[in-house]
Amino acid sequence: MHIIVCVKQIPDPEVPPAKFKIDPDTKKVMPPPGLPPVISVFDERAVELACRIKEKNPGTKITAITMGPGKVSDVVKHALAMGADEGIVLQDKAFEDSDSFGNAHILAKAIQKIGSYDLILCGRQAADWDIGQTGSILAETLGIPVVTVAKDIEVAGDKIKVSRVMEDGYEVVEAPLPCVVTVSNEVGLPRLPSGMGIIQAARKQVPAWTAADIGADPAKIGPAAAHSEITSLFIPTRDTTCEVITADTLAEAAVKLALKLRETKVV
Amino acid sequence: MAHREIFWNISHEYIMYVLSFIAVVFVAYAIYRHYKMWRMGKGDERSKNMGSRVWAFVKTGFADGLGHRRFLREPYPGIMHLLIFWGCVILLLAAAVDAITHYLVIPLEGSTYLWFSLVVDIAGILVLIGVILAITRRYIQKPERLNTFLDDGVILSLIAIVIITGYMIEGLRLAATEVNTNPDWALWSPVGLVFTKKTLFGGLSHDTILTLHSVLWWFHAVLVNGTIIYVALSYSKLQHIVISPLNAFFRNLGPVGAPAPIDMETAEVLGVGEIKDFTWKQLLDGDACTNCGRCQDVCPAWASGKPLSPRKLTQDIKTQWQKVANPKSNPPESLPPLIGGAIAEDEIWACTTCAACQQACPVFIEHIVKIIDMRRNLTMMQSKMPENIQLMLRNMQTRGHPWVGAQTLRLRGDWTSGLGLNTLAEDSNVDMLLWVGCTAALSDRNVEVTLALVRVLKAAGVSFGILGEDEPCCGDPARRAGYEIQFQTSVEQNIALLQGYNVKNIVATCPHCYNTFKNEYPKFGGSFNVVHHTQLIADLLKQDKIKLTCDLRSLATYHDPCYLGRYNSIYSEPRNILHAIPQLKLKEMERSHSKSFCCGGGGTHMWFEQQIGTKVNDIRTDEALKTNAEIVATACPYCLLMLEEAIQGKDLQQPLKAKDIAELVDQAMEKSA
Description:
The complex is a heterodimer of chains A (267) and B (673).
Chain A: E1 2-7, E2 9-11, E3 21-23, E4 28-30, E5 37-39, H1 41-56, E6 61-67, H2 73-82, E7 86-90, H3 100-114, E8 119-123, H4 134-142, E9 146-156, E10 159-166, E11 169-176, E12 179-183, H5 195-203, E13 208-209, H6 211-214, H7 250-263
Parallel strand pairs in A: 1-6, 1-8, 6-7, 7-13, 8-12, 9-12
Antiparallel strand pairs in A: 2-5, 3-4, 9-10, 10-11
Helix pairs in contact in A: 2-5, 3-4
Chain B: H1 14-38, H2 50-66, H3 75-103, H4 110-141, H5 150-176, H6 178-181, H7 183-186, H8 190-193, H9 206-233, H10 240-249, H11 280-288, H12 294-298, H13 300-303, H14 310-325, H15 345-350, H16 356-360, H17 368-381, H18 387-399, E1 432-435, H19 438-442, H20 444-459, E2 464-465, H21 476-480, H22 484-500, E3 505-508, H23 511-520, E4 529-532, H24 533-542, E5 554-558, H25 572-580, E6 584-586, H26 616-626, E7 631-634, H27 637-649, E8 657-660, H28 661-670
Parallel strand pairs in B: 1-2, 1-3, 3-4, 5-6, 5-7, 7-8
Helix pairs in contact in B: 1-9, 3-4, 4-5, 5-9, 10-11, 11-14, 20-28, 24-25, 26-27
């Protein structure tokens, strides 16, 4: 079985939004200096799920694939250290500022170049922009089924049983292989790369493929091909005001507080 | 003239030499067998630099060996062992003197002989008193830490019988000779005299005495050699007579609790997963353990009801080692695994690396590194660890510090805002780097200490810079968790960073950073001149660069952080500072200095809590409360948080605040400035 996991590098999502700045001209987010990029939390769970499938189904091969500018090979190395077998980086100036359709096209082209695959795992959404479309469009592009927000996958021959997260529990759906599954955080804490895993990952070569390598259609990628446009971008501000309720007795204060809460529609 | 009788009344004495020879053969075999079993372990640096090792052994041998320094920290068992030890040493020397005088025909006679008799008689009594103390302790008092086996009773009985039969033989000889011919001389053997015919053996004929003497003499000789053979063949703890001094000889002469670096390029196994992964010295450690339990008595994990006892851990490793060494009686497939079998994972994670066990051990066993080595195997080979440890390590990997989620509160450089501090990136031309440390930069309570320290350093006119938001983690939490790969990555990056700024002097606020820089970085090529802030402040006070004029009018107690005290022997500087603060009285807790009790936060316990038993910080806070102090001063960010948490958790009738020494100094100089 061959599992391909799509992973994305994002700015550390644990940093409070107020630390970010926005460039009003290019409408781009500028993370605070020195902020370490990390693997998107949902994608990391996709790698975790792939590793769990591999443990249960010996002979499974996992390929981690990422796209982005800069030193994105770090997230592939992280996936390799966790237990992936091979890694591929997609890097080209032409890829930049693509939207979900563009990204799905690039990934689809790369996956077609890889050739054989049984299962493609993506995070349910990237933890930076939270759009959550790429996985589904990728399935559409490849012409295979998609199951979204999975918390567990059980392989049964040429089919898989996927536990999908619901608001009040989960449902189990069956899908034929090959297919795309987007993975949710309910998978649980991803494993810490083992020491041996890190050592072996460091020794592995990660090839970088360009637009020409995968034969991407220039008309379908980049900002020009985008189906959507960012018209404005702002950092949410949260104002807090503190009002101290004073009264002669505690009972009186409690009544005043209750009235105030009703007035502000908190209760 | 009075003289020593050798083989009086005894014929065929060569039989005794045959017996002794057999005993020697068994001892030689035992030594060979143990040697082979130690060599089951990996190589260890301890076999290098023998010269300095010999010198260290000689230098400390008098106090630690002959003087029983470590034993006497507890009077009862200390004196008990001292009596048996010195009694036996004198008796053995007496036997040697006998042999020398007899075969070199050096006369031992006159008053020299009489004094000799007296000393040897007293030595036997010392041993007997020691044995009686030991029997009382083991079988009547039964302290919790003692685990009694058949061997304990056997060896105490053997020692007692050997000594008592010795006296009986002496008494019988006296009865037949000196008591009749030279009663004055007999008085120099007062204990043996008890057994002369006037008392116990009264009314026996001369011939009966001679026969009885001869029988008892041979019984005594067989018993002594039999005891030696028993000890050589069994795993009796009396083997410690040879193995413990050997272990003391090969003891750690370097920094406390520092694990050996792993060569990540060549290592095939990371950490210790089975017996053969230990080094030979680590196996020798187990062999030297006499199960005395001093370590267990001082262990914070044990005291708070956790599953770890350093005594049990050492004994369990020893038992597993003995089983692995004897595959015939213990087929490998029948053996439990070392981790998760002989030693439970919970035991391995319960250690706070406080080093109290190592300080208490009279035979210099090192528990901490073995525990870290097993953690290495768990985290790096098996990916098994408590969930919060995993979160902490992931955070170190991705964010460069161990504080999970702390970034939603603070970023590393946040505390510096408005202080106008110089970062090395702006100007590295300063006398020293203030290494703040993750906790002191990210946790709100600890930032207060950092700010106080900055005020003190500024007031004293110290030229210092900081790294600000570029400051990474020193790596200590990863190392104590056994995740050596992250530690070595941190060390490599940090050395490059610090050398890039040409940093020579570092002042660290955290004893864990301090210890790591001072004792563990040099092995990776990073040598810096590191001081802890208490050392720096004490020095500034001495040079009169800080004036403390403000009365604090308070009673304080001082909690020794493990990594400052036991790890680095910094006991006096913090106390000197506290003494220098006007109107601040210092009252020590029952356990202080090298006997100080852990706060519960070391060895990665700052980031996870074992939900077993009680809390270590509660125990320590109760000890602080007993002093009636209003302030429990400390000098470590972990200790501060742990003590504060425990104080808040108690419904206290008396006021008690946890403070860092830097805060107290800041307070004492505030109004004068």
